[in-house]
Amino acid sequence: MTNPLIRFFRTKIYTAIFLLIIIMLIGVFGYIMISGYSWVDAFYMTVITMTTVGFGEVVPLDEEAKIFTIFLILASVVIVGYALSVITEYILSKNNIEELKQKKMQKEIDGFRNHVVVCGYGRNGKQAVKKLMAHKREFVVIERNRDLEERLQMDNVPYIIGNANEDEVLIRAGIDRASNFISALPNDADNLFVVLSTRQINRNINIISRASNESSYDKLKFAGANNVILPDNIGGSHMASLVVVPGLMEFIDNLSIVGKNNINIEEVAVEKLYSGKSSKTIKDLDLRRKTGCTVIGYKDENGEYIVNPEAELELAINSKIIVLGRPEQIEALNSTYNID
Questions:
Q1: How many CA atoms lie within 13 Å of 35's alpha carbon, on the beta-carbon side?
Q2: How many CB atoms lie within 10 A of CB 28?
Q3: Looking at residue 272, what DSSP letter applies?
Q4: Among 87, 112, 101, 70, which residue's Cα sits nearest to residue 19?
Q5: Which residue, 100, 95, 134, 137, is CA-closest to 116?
Q6: Do residues 142 and 166 make contact, with C-beta atoms less than 8 angstroms apart?
Q7: 41: CB partners within 8 A, 6+ apart
Q8: What are the pLDDT digits (tens) for 168-194?
């Protein structure tokens, strides 16, 4: 949405342009009627009079034409001066407003804690941002292409324009306070450098990087990436799966983990389900009866996954469960245990 101050200055600019057109028309018609000039000569005389460039008249002016020229010069000086001042004020104000907006955004970013930093706003970066917004996670985008700034503003995305290869830009994004970092740059070499810099600044951050070539996988892992995603491999594998197990893939494609009212799968920390003073099992939680959700996975405190865990499995602190259910069942789960 356009800033009210910008709209105000634009209105003044339109007024100035309107006055310039009016005084020019008065000059042209005045010279035609008073001195009998042709259209071209009248327009020429009007322009050199308004701009006060000092060129000579087309033909010598009589007294009537001289008086008219005097008033045209005085009116032109006032109107042209007004137009120049309005345009100058608009340019300066626009720059000041953009600077204030940047400072306000930087102040907002400075208040983030345990947020996500997304590097790159290309295809993969946009998809990551879309999912983060759906889950109401705080994040900031680093993008070096200033041409994308307008798109970032339209999408209402907190952002920093700069090169993520520079530590200063990473610090401005709060990388030292962030919990996760997503490097979605199109070039593997850039991803490698950014991952290395990020790991040096924040030893505990979870880093997820994109890679175009399989040969970059081990390098990115060695540089400090916790997870490396190969979009081309995932896409090819998915297409092949649609041939081999089409029914299963169709079912998986219909599962949603993004959105407000259509989520089917949720990951829940065990601490949100019970106090932890006494250990409980999946059976003790009885989520199926209380919410309708089914536990389909378990992630222990060491990060190891168990698919379709037994009902008698004891839930350890700092572990997580993965539940499956219809959107209304997931909503009932979140409501019952006050999960944001």
A1: 25
A2: 20
A3: G
A4: 87
A5: 137
A6: no
A7: 31, 58
A8: 999 999 999 999 999 999 999 999 999
